[in-house]
Write the structure tokens for this entry.
Amino acid sequence: MIVGLTGGIGSGKSTVLKMFAKFENIAIYIADDEAKKLMNSSSEIRQKLISNFGREVYIKKELNKPYLADIVFNNKQKLQTLNAIVHPVVHLHFQKFIRKNTKKTYILYENAILFENNSTSFCNKIITVTAPEHIRIKRVLKRDNTTIASVKNRMKNQWQETKKIMQSHYIIENDKLIDTEKQIARIHNILIKNIK
């Protein structure tokens, strides 16, 4: 079973993933982390990024993340171009991951843009992580050393939380850690029962 995990920027998906990681016999795939690795290691992605975004997109064979982020988060079309280059390669990589982990109880597939890039099509269940907007902004400011305007700009490029919630099987309100842990334990137990 593939369980998609998503949530807007600053919703606390990393915290939720750490809590899920405590359960035995599940496999976790973090699409964003794998995409970053593939952007550095895949010659196919490298060539396409250079031809679409210029040579400055790499510095000494390493992805120039601030340069690329500056382009794509201010231009929806450029963001779509980036996703169209990276997403198919990540998708193939994930298929290999599934084949390697067939004995696991379920695979948790974390993707911030699960709905936006239509990755929901191969998920059996979907979990959306939410938090009040002011908390999400505060978390991103602390984590990324950025501005409120920049965070709000990134939020605009993602689906609205209400839209995600309506299309999800489970919702995790990630406000207080103790409550988050209880919600995760409950969802995990339901998922295991569904498999049996």
